[in-house]
Amino acid sequence: MARWLPRSTDLTRLCQKLNRVKTLEDDMMETSFNRCLSTIDLTLLGIGGMVGSGLYVLTGTVAKEIAGPAVIVSFIIAGFASLLAALCYAEFGARVPKTGSAYMFTYVSVGEIWAFLIGWNVLLEYMIGGAAVARAWSGYLDSIFNHKIKNFTETHVGAWQVPFLARYPDFLAAAILLVATAFISFGAKVSSWLNHVFSAISMGVILFILIMGFVLAQPKNWSTQEGGFAPYGLSGIMAGTATCFYAFVGFDVIAASSEEARNPQRAVPRAIAFSLGLATGAYILVSVVLTLMVPWHTLDPDSALADAFYRRGYAWAGFLVAAGSIC
Fold first, then answer.
1. Which of 102, 121, 219, 298 is exposed most, by the fewest CB atoms within 10 A?
2. Would residue 92 count as lying in a domain?
3. What is the band of 9 on the pLDDT scale with cuts at 50, 70, 90?
């Protein structure tokens, strides 16, 4: 039996292989990718990654079910925590301007086995994030047609009550993921140009939401008659922070694009700082507007912003917001 037991030298060699780090080339700027992305490109890429389902869905969900109007405080805390993580990404992105994001950073600095685990976590993160964004897109498009798509699917395909799953198969969300995949396959230049267009439209819609929302704001919606500013207390605020942190995970797409940036040492840190600052400001202001327009406990988690305008009698504004969420 003893001869089948691993020797200490074998175990040492195995540990060395599991913890070996990736060595970088002398010239890290050499790459097979096209270095075509500027600081503005990366900033808009980060904004597109963060200001998506979080703005149009997460704000309403957290406000109604977790924190109430204190979702504003949750976003402030989550934004600060994301800033600390973003500083780490900015440092790594400037030192290791290679595609791979957290996987590559871990492989270079810690070792192969840890990079392997991180890599699968990154894949899981993007899978869940993509699914959430697609579901948000589907929900807002469905709200434009008065939820006819949802009703048709439940009637002709079926529905189920399974925890952590939607009530019905969302074919529309699956289709948009396939379309997005097709656009991305054309390369960074094409997908970046499309991101510019959609981000510009989305930021215009957000500006409209803020202006129109503050015009329709009613301070009484934060009063004690409606439950107060923090109906769930400090525990609700911190629970909301944990959920709101998810809204900021998109900034790592900037570090993942380091190998396609013209000057990654300068562009990556600046783009991360700019995009995170703009996204945090947008989340805070939209949360203020949303909870002042209608009572927080009456929000529709699936399409909170569009539904708020519909209920205030501005159906055309709700349609515009739904179009912005699609962008």
1. 219
2. yes
3. confident
